[in-house]
Design a protein that fits this description.
Layout lengths: L9 H9 L12 E8 L7 E6 L1 H4 L2 H16 L11 H10 L6 H23 L5 E8 L4 H24 L5 H11 L1 E2 H6 L14 E9 L3 E7 L5 E4 L4 E3 L15 E3 L8 E2 L2 E3 L9 E4 L6 E5 L9 H14 L4 H21 L9 E8 L1
Parallel strand pairs: 9-11
Antiparallel strand pairs: 1-14, 2-3, 3-5, 4-10, 5-6, 6-12, 7-8, 7-13, 13-14
Helix pairs in contact: 1-6, 3-5, 4-5, 6-7, 9-10
Length: 362
């Protein structure tokens, strides 16, 4: 007799969709990676994800499409034919303007054709890189999981657009996600929010997104997330990182760039001087085989508590030679022990979701 289908509860549904499977782990030369997450309840606001470009996208097909467009953009539109693409459409608009010459149209076509050649070149970089996404929504439970899910869905929707247009992720990508979590003036007014209550009605989340390259080169953007840790296999300790190179923005949705056209339509704690740019992308290189990059959420370590940092370093010394999976689980086990201590001492309010992501140079 068949077992009747049971509709999953909302927390079960969110937990399943926010947890990646091991089959999605990217495989890069000289790199081993693994992540895991433990919610404080049945579901939490932590999210981590492997962005396996080769598994998620048909890179070959995208490259061929870009090269096809490159050739198509160069071909003049036959008389009487409707526009075939955005370039035909724009050239038709140019022709309606005073002073148009054939050289103007051909120059525009050449520029857009060259742009597609660059898209194809950038797409080829996806063969030898992988993305890592960590999100920590404020609080824990179903509401936090919903916020993390919003970031997740926004991230992947904009990713499709970025790859179509540029063949890679650009700094503007992060501003779009940042704006998605910002509280709109319209929503605040409709809900009767006090404009002086900066936390009222906000969906707050930290986010770290980085791209891993063969043999330990890691580039990332950080919105309010605890900074990465680098463990040296040779010296068996966490190494100091030049903080001037670790650019960090406020958590998502809290700060709108002062030059953004919709800045007056959102409630910003303060206006940021400029948008995210290429120089805001931080870089870390694992110099030697066995070196380890540790990404985590503040349920594991807030990046400041010296005692917790020393405990994590001791765990790393004991397990650094093991697989990325074993190292990850050992750090999570240490965080669970810390929670047990808090619970025994009546500090249940400090127990939080816990996530660790390990990138090891093999």
């Amino acid at each position: 007799m068949a077992t009747p289908y049971a509709e999953p509860s909302i927390d079960e549904y969110l937990r399943r969709r926010l947890m990646p499977v091991e089959g999605a782990i990217p495989h890069l030369p000289g790199i081993e990676m693994y992540g895991n997450s433990i919610p404080a309840g049945t579901v939490g606001g932590d999210l981590f994800e492997y962005i396996n470009f080769q598994q998620r996208y048909d890179i070959d097909a995208r490259i061929q499409r870009a090269l096809k467009l490159s050739n198509e953009f160069l071909d003049p539109l036959p008389p009487g034919m409707p526009p075939r693409n955005s370039v035909d459409d724009h050239v038709a608009w140019l022709k309606s303007k005073p002073g148009y010459t054939p050289e103007v149209g051909s120059g525009y076509r050449a520029a857009r054709s060259s742009e597609q050649v660059r898209v194809a070149e950038d797409l080829r970089e996806l063969y030898t890189s992988a993305g890592v996404l960590l999100v920590d929504a404020q609080g824990h439970g179903i509401i936090s999981a919903k916020i993390a899910s919003t970031v997740h869905d926004t991230f992947h929707a904009f990713m499709l657009s970025e790859l179509d247009r540029y063949g890679k992720i650009t700094p503007e990508f992060f501003e779009k996600i940042n704006l998605r979590l910002a509280q709109s003036v319209t929503a605040r007014n409709a809900l009767g929010r006090d404009e002086h209550d900066e936390e009222s009605g906000r969906e707050i989340a930290t986010m770290l997104y980085g791209e891993v390259h063969p043999y330990g080169y890691f580039r990332f953007v950080n919105f309010g997330h605890p900074p990465p840790l680098v463990f040296s296999a040779e010296f068996r300790k966490f190494m100091k990182i030049d903080q001037d190179r670790m650019v960090q923005f406020l958590a998502l949705g809290l700060q709108i760039p002062e030059d953004h056209p919709d800045r007056k339509k959102y409630f910003s704690m303060q206006l940021r001087e400029a948008r995210v740019k290429s120089s805001d992308v931080a870089e870390i290189t694992l110099m030697s085989p066995g070196d380890i990059l540790v990404l985590y959420t503040d349920g594991v370590y807030d990046g400041n508590d010296e005692q917790t940092g020393q405990q994590l370093e001791a765990v790393m010394r004991e397990h650094y030679w093991q697989s990325a999976k074993d190292i990850c689980n050992a750090l999570l086990q240490q965080a669970v022990k810390q929670d047990e201590y808090f619970l025994r001492n009546g500090q249940a309010d400090v127990v939080d979701d816990k996530t660790v992501f390990i990138i090891k140079r093999s």
